[in-house]
């Protein structure tokens, strides 16, 4: 039966509407997929940027204590007092040993004029000995009596590094004394960049002058973010921070977007010129830098195309189903006249539907495989996050060791002086034939060496890594161990220590090393808070409560301000002056106790001061009965 002109016009209109609907559905699906993929890409990039920035800060900050530690050594001061009359080689070897132990690049000593007197690289062709670094900012800050920090290109080594410095005082008791020298530690940045190269994104560290100081790609290092003017280039060359590097333009193009929510970035030239990136920035105020991550937008484009194809396929199925329904309605009205035509149409429709189902099934299988890969990537990212957290906990323990180094040094100096006196007496008694007196002096020497070994064993025990599974741990034993680490500070500051716990020893389910770390951190904070208190008193309490045990550390210092109680366990929150802490100790301690299945809280003590309470699950244990003690260290 011929089709009428009106019927052909309606059919053309339906085809046009169907095509417009197909285009609209594919466009809407592509836009939705783009927004979702871009949001996921931005979230992943923000997580990666945060982890990389924290890793760089942790890598640099773990060495800031070393210059001050070396500057306080007697050998350094003795050599600086009269360098012309002494052999510098023993000091060179000492600095080289510290360099190898700490894992830094170089350690060197400058006099008050900026001349290098001793260095760990004395045996290398490009040694620092004899070089003058008075123009460097780290020297100028340290010789003025402040710890110094600096980053730049080495004048001799031509290597990028971060420098820590500390003043060396020969007269520490005179309030008007000036620094007599500067101890400097240089840390290379290549190891951090090597870790960045394994990531899928590009990482840049940009200083305040818009110079790319660090980058995961070597081609982008020591380049300007934007072309420099002649005046800016001459100003940078005058500082000698980057020596005589040309500081050419990096070729980065900022196409659109804002820096706070993400920018679309491209490159005018170089190996990345054919790729567009999503750029995010994170400020690093402690160093005057900002870190930027560039993540390829190719996954977003792929998600758009895939969503458009899936929407088109689904739209085709819907349109086809509607057409089949309409065709079947029409065929029912004309069944007798068009019976044979109906059979052929249904057959064709069935074949087309089967093909669409097969295509849809194949797409779903591919989607499931992609989702499985994304789940595995997320699992690996969570595992890396746990590893980073454990390394941060270990770094915090090492930072506490650095704070305890002065006290331990004082503890070791006393028995060393006594050993020397006993040895000289034994030699004199031996010359006189007084064997019994000689034996007595040797016995005293043996006892003193055992005491020194016990002190060093405490440090080794505290620096070891913790285990993976909780065990039964004695809380009084943990308190005793923590107090041994602070015994020098307790004696010198006259802190009264009160132990308040039941006679039966209390046991909890925890990890021995991590619980000791938390107690050391809490006691160290309490001692620091009571540094200006006239009659400092530290109270340690153990309270069994049913299936749990409460462990309290209380001091009579100034206490915690009410407005700070809600923020005290947040990372990087601290009320200490700059240079006295990163604000990570309580945050890490709270995380450790949470991982052990307990809770760490803080409030103001009833009699004034601060009180920290640890609640942990109780465990069955045995031990010798204990009594309440009250110790005063003068």
UniProtKB/TrEMBL annotation:
<keyword id="KW-0902">Two-component regulatory system</keyword>
<feature type="coiled-coil region">
    <location>
        <begin position="336"/>
        <end position="398"/>
    </location>
</feature>
<keyword id="KW-0418">Kinase</keyword>
<dbReference type="GO" id="GO:0005524">
    <property type="term" value="F:ATP binding"/>
</dbReference>
<protein>
    <recommendedName>
        <fullName>C4-dicarboxylate transport sensor protein DctB</fullName>
        <ecNumber>2.7.13.3</ecNumber>
    </recommendedName>
</protein>
<keyword id="KW-0175">Coiled coil</keyword>
<dbReference type="GO" id="GO:0005886">
    <property type="term" value="C:plasma membrane"/>
</dbReference>
<dbReference type="InterPro" id="IPR005467">
    <property type="entry name" value="His_kinase_dom"/>
</dbReference>
<dbReference type="InterPro" id="IPR003661">
    <property type="entry name" value="HisK_dim/P_dom"/>
</dbReference>
<keyword id="KW-1003">Cell membrane</keyword>
<keyword id="KW-0997">Cell inner membrane</keyword>
<dbReference type="InterPro" id="IPR036097">
    <property type="entry name" value="HisK_dim/P_sf"/>
</dbReference>
<keyword id="KW-0808">Transferase</keyword>
<keyword id="KW-0067">ATP-binding</keyword>
<keyword id="KW-0472">Membrane</keyword>
<feature type="transmembrane region" description="Helical">
    <location>
        <begin position="305"/>
        <end position="326"/>
    </location>
</feature>
<dbReference type="GO" id="GO:0000155">
    <property type="term" value="F:phosphorelay sensor kinase activity"/>
</dbReference>
<dbReference type="Pfam" id="PF00512">
    <property type="entry name" value="HisKA"/>
</dbReference>
<dbReference type="InterPro" id="IPR004358">
    <property type="entry name" value="Sig_transdc_His_kin-like_C"/>
</dbReference>
<keyword id="KW-1133">Transmembrane helix</keyword>
<dbReference type="InterPro" id="IPR003594">
    <property type="entry name" value="HATPase_dom"/>
</dbReference>
<keyword id="KW-0597">Phosphoprotein</keyword>
<dbReference type="InterPro" id="IPR029151">
    <property type="entry name" value="Sensor-like_sf"/>
</dbReference>
<feature type="domain" description="Histidine kinase">
    <location>
        <begin position="407"/>
        <end position="620"/>
    </location>
</feature>
<keyword id="KW-0547">Nucleotide-binding</keyword>
<dbReference type="Pfam" id="PF02518">
    <property type="entry name" value="HATPase_c"/>
</dbReference>
<dbReference type="InterPro" id="IPR017055">
    <property type="entry name" value="Sig_transdc_His_kinase_DctB"/>
</dbReference>
<keyword id="KW-0812">Transmembrane</keyword>
<dbReference type="InterPro" id="IPR036890">
    <property type="entry name" value="HATPase_C_sf"/>
</dbReference>
């Amino acid at each position: 039966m011929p089709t009428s002109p009106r019927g052909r016009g309606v059919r053309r209109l339906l085809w046009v509407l169907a095509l417009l609907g197909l285009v609209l559905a594919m466009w809407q699906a592509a836009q939705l997929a783009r927004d979702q993929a871009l949001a996921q890409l931005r979230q992943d990039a923000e997580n990666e940027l945060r982890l990389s920035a924290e890793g760089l800060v942790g890598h640099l900050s773990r060495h800031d204590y070393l210059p001050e530690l070396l500057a306080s050594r007697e050998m350094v001061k003795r050599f600086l007092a009269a360098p012309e009359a002494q052999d510098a080689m023993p000091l060179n070897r000492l600095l080289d040993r510290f360099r190898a132990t700490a894992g830094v690049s170089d350690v060197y000593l400058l006099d008050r004029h900026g001349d290098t007197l001793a260095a760990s690289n004395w045996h290398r062709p490009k040694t620092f000995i004899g070089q003058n670094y008075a123009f460097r900012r780290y020297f100028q800050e340290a010789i003025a009596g402040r710890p110094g920090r600096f980053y730049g290109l080495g004048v001799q080594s031509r290597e990028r590094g971060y420098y820590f410095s500390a003043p060396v005082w020969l007269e520490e008791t005179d309030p008007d004394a000036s620094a007599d020298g500067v101890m400097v530690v240089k840390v290379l940045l290549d190891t951090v960049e090597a870790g960045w190269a394994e990531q899928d994104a590009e990482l840049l560290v940009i200083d305040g002058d818009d110079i790319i100081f660090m980058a995961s790609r070597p081609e982008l290092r020591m380049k300007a973010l934007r072309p420099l003017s002649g005046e800016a280039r001459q100003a940078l060359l005058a500082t000698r921070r980057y020596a005589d590097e040309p500081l050419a333009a990096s070729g980065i193009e900022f196409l659109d977007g804002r820096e706070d929510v993400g920018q679309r970035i491209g490159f005018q030239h170089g190996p990345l010129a054919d790729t567009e990136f999503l750029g995010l920035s994170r400020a690093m105020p402690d160093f005057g830098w900002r870190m930027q991550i560039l993540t390829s937008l190719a996954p977003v484009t792929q998600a758009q195309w895939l969503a458009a194809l899936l929407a088109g396929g689904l739209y085709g199925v819907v349109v086809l189903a509607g057409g089949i329904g309409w065709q079947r309605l029409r065929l029912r009205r004309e069944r007798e006249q068009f019976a044979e035509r109906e059979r052929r149409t249904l057959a064709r429709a069935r074949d087309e539907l089967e093909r669409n189902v097969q295509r849809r099934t194949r797409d779903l299988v591919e989607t499931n495989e992609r989702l499985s890969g994304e789940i595995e990537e997320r699992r690996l990212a969570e595992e890396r996050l746990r590893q980073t957290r454990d390394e941060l906990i270990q770094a915090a323990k090492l930072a506490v060791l650095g704070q305890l180094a002065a006290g331990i040094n004082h503890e070791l100096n006393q028995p060393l002086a006594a050993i020397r006196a006993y040895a000289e007496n034994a030699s004199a008694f031996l010359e006189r034939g007084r064997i019994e007196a000689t034996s007595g002096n040797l016995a005293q020497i043996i006892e003193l060496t055992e005491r020194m070994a016990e002190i060093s064993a405490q440090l080794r025990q505290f620096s070891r890594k913790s285990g993976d599974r909780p065990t039964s741990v004695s809380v009084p034993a943990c308190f005793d161990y923590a107090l041994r680490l602070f015994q020098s500070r307790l004696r010198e500051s006259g802190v009264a220590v009160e132990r308040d716990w039941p006679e039966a020893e209390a046991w909890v389910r925890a990890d021995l090393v991590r619980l000791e770390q938390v107690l050391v951190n809490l006691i160290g904070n309490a001692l620091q808070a009571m540094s200006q208190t006239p009659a400092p008193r530290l109270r340690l309490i153990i309270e069994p409560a049913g299936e749990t045990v409460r462990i309290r550390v209380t001091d009579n210092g100034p206490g915690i301000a009410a407005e700070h109680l809600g923020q005290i366990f947040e990372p990087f929150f601290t009320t200490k002056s700059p240079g006295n802490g990163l604000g990570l100790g309580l945050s890490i301690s709270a995380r450790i106790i949470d991982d052990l299945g307990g809770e760490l809280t803080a409030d103001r003590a009833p009699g004034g001061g601060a009180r920290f309470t640890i609640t942990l699950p109780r465990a069955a244990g045995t031990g010798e009965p204990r009594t309440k003690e009250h110790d005063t260290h003068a």
